[in-house]
Design brief:
Layout: H1 11-17, H2 19-27, E1 31-32, E2 37-38, H3 47-51, E3 55-60, H4 62-79, E4 83-87, H5 88-91, E5 102-108, H6 114-125, E6 129-134, H7 140-144, E7 147-150, H8 163-182, H9 188-211, H10 213-223, E8 228-233, H11 238-252, E9 255-260, E10 277-281, H12 288-300, E11 304-310, E12 322-326, H13 335-352
Parallel strand pairs: 3-4, 3-5, 5-6, 6-7, 8-9, 8-10, 10-11, 11-12
Antiparallel strand pairs: 1-2
Helix pairs in contact: 2-8, 2-9, 4-8, 4-11, 8-9, 9-13, 10-13, 11-13
The chain binds 6-O-phosphono-alpha-D-glucopyranose.
Length: 370
């Protein structure tokens, strides 16, 4: 096991650190940024049906469900196909309405999650195309879906999912761009520009891992004593807030909630005091000014703010206790960079609290029973 950890203390840390490589593998042979093309062999046979879909229903659990929420944003933005994201466990018991031209897309790292598998079977029973975005090759979900795309992220051992999440988002981005192209929504120039941005992500993740590591560890030292934490983000970074909160609660047992930043005033703001860290994703995109107003509201109530923003933004220095910088990418791909500090932060907080990072209490890597 020590050898498998590659010299690191924990699988989770190893898996966080190997994300540049895992994402390069998830794009290898698929993303051709220089030519401006994207090829997904696993979808070739079903492409006509997929591109004519009236609606895509994404089903998943846990972290994979968060990746699905990012996928919804990406597919709607690039391909203009309406997407719904369902917890697989809810989908299976709601007698879901599935029409002929709907497509069910499931996301699963293990390919063995019972509820997600049930969604595949339900789709097939309804005569609807069932696609999988799966990491484990040959797993039950990979076998039972009509077609799909593997992550090629390599085995993930740590119970808290890290590299599978970013690889899932990378694959969903490729599906969204491919559909955008075949449906005639994206121009060749837009496609190429986005593929170039995607191809740069592994290097940019490496920059975050190298340049922000020390700062994140120092923030973890302060955060380790917290009892609650609030994670806020908007748009494509809202699922990152959910994922940040999930990572913290899973492995450090600190209660954490993720919310869309603007919803803060409908509840969570009541909880804010100087003991509660509030973690914002505040990159300079369309709703940046509104997020800054939310940060001001938190500061005015004595809350301490940790903000993730894009490199070179000095606008939060006087407001936030800590500012973590990630490189600029296309707005749509920001989750691939903004989630990295949250993964590292949870890891360090959990280690400092003496928690068993790779095997958190009561959790399983793969939930194969209901
Ligand atoms: C469990 C794991 C999570 C994972 C979820 C879905 O809860 O602890 O890390 O996100 O199952 O698993 P899947 O293998 O379907 O992605």
């Amino acid at each position: 096991e020590e050898i498998e950890k590659g010299g690191y203390d924990h699988f989770m840390y190893k898996e966080i650190m190997e994300q540049p490589e895992a994402l390069a593998n998830a794009m290898r042979g698929r993303v051709h940024a220089d030519e401006g093309t994207v090829k997904l062999g696993g979808l070739e046979d079903v492409m006509k049906q997929l591109e004519a879909a009236d609606r895509i229903v994404i089903c998943a659990c846990g972290t994979s469900w968060h990746a699905g929420l990012v996928g919804e944003y990406l597919i709607e933005r690039f391909a203009r196909i309406p997407v719904e994201v369902e917890y697989a466990s809810e989908f299976r018991y709601r007698d879901p309405i599935l029409n002929e031209n709907d497509v069910v897309l499931v996301i699963s790292q293990s390919g063995e999650t019972a509820d997600t598998l049930a969604a595949v079977r339900q789709a097939k029973e309804a005569g609807v195309l069932a696609l999988g975005v799966v990491n484990a090759v040959g797993s039950t979900i990979a076998r039972e879906t009509d077609a799909g795309v593997y992550l090629h992220a390599g085995p993930e051992i740590g119970v808290a999912s890290t590299k599978a999440f970013t690889a899932q988002v990378t694959v969903l981005a490729q599906i969204a761009l491919l559909l955008g192209k075949t449906r005639g929504v994206l121009s060749d120039a837009d496609l190429k520009e986005n593929l170039e941005a995607l191809a740069k992500i592994p290097t940019q993740i490496r920059e975050v891992l190298e340049q922000q590591a020390e700062k994140i560890e120092a923030i973890a030292r302060e955060m380790r004593l917290a009892q609650n934490a609030l994670y806020l983000g908007r748009g494509v970074n809202f699922p990152v807030a959910l994922e940040g909160a999930l990572k913290l609660k899973e492995i450090s047992y600190i209660h954490a909630e993720g919310y869309p930043a603007a919803e803060m005033k409908h509840g969570p703001i009541a909880l804010i005091d100087r003991f509660m860290p509030v973690l914002f994703v505040a990159t300079r995109e369309a709703t940046y000014d509104k997020v800054v107003s939310n940060i001001e509201e938190v500061v005015a109530r004595g809350g301490s703010v940790i903000a993730i923003t894009d490199t070179g933004n000095r606008g939060l220095d006087d407001l936030a206790e800590h500012v973590i910088e990630v490189p600029k990418t296309s707005d749509a791909f920001e989750p691939l960079l903004t989630v990295i500090p949250f993964q590292l932060l949870s890891y360090h907080v959990a280690v400092m609290r003496g928690c068993d990072v790779d095997m958190p209490r009561n959790l399983a890597k793969s939930v194969t029973v209901e």
